[in-house]
Amino acid sequence: xxxxxxxEVSHTVFRLLGIPGLExxxxxxxxxxxxxxxxxxLGNTLLICIILTRHILREPMYLFLxxxxxxxxxxxxxTVPQALAIFWFHAGEISLDRCITQLxxxxxxxxxxxGILLVMAFDCYIAIRYPLRxxxxxxxxxxxxxxxxxCLRSYGTIFPIIFLLKRLTFCKSNILPNTAxxxxxxxxxxxxxxxxxxxxxxxxxxxxxxxxxxLIFISYVLILRAVFRIPSRDARHKxxxxxxxxxxxxxxxxxxxxxxxxxxxxxxxxxxxIHVLLSNVCILAPPMLNPIIYGIKTKQIWDHVVHVLxxxxx
Length: 314
Known about the structure:
Largest sheet: 3 strands, mixed
CATH class: Mainly Alpha
Structural class: mainly alpha
Shape: globular
Radius of gyration: 21 Å
Transmembrane segments: 27-50, 62-91, 103-128, 140-165, 198-227, 239-258, 270-289
Domain G-protein coupled receptors family 1 profile: 43-294
GO molecular function: G protein-coupled receptor activity; olfactory receptor activity
Function: Putative odorant or sperm cell receptor. Odorant receptor.
Protein name: Olfactory receptor 52B4-like
Strand order of the largest sheet: 2-1-3
CATH superfamily: Rhodopsin 7-helix transmembrane proteins
Number of helices: 11
Strand content: under 5%
Number of domains: 1
Distance between the termini: 55 Å
């Protein structure tokens, strides 16, 4: 479909380009996308099934991990199939409503993951500071309420974006240089003043992800303070190892996102396809690597994975 540029037309259909400038390499680029999606799908599904079917893994830490795995499944499923359709079948056409729906779920899930990581930092602190009262403080009822609160926060902050986009007239090019719909990219395709959209986007970022990072940092200051008050060296090592997996996942989740944001803000000389590839790393890497990190570094989960995959085959 050719791009329309008549100012009196408000587009209702857009075309996602995939990786701009690398269209002839799409078939090769699709291979890591497919591999990461299959690993994310299998790894997170296995993780959820093991946690929900093993009574011994019904502790708060594993229930929060189950929430994280569910969010990873949603995040990767919202984006990767669409990207593969573009790479394989040149199926980049997407309606405005479908585009808004996609970005709504992408950002909701991203904010939910950030909230879950914050809760998991709080969980680490409780486990180290109050080990004997751990399960009595974090009851299943409280965990359920925390999960609902995380979801309500993400949906509540992203929901106004639907109306902020719906009010716009999309009379510029209907070509979107990306593999999925992004909020600001879509807003820039309009002919309206989008300052409200930009400021609300900043508000959402600061009030959710940035706030979560600050609170996670404070949580780990308290965790380290509690750890170094433990007299036994072995106990200190065990306490630090308890939160090791969580630290790896935090770096994996926020690291690429911060790097991508800085690159987009200051790297104006960088080719557009680099920006698109970096933004895709933020979505591809965490869902693929999170179950691997927790599976390898958490002995209880690793033992159950080995039992499920190998014991029954003997």
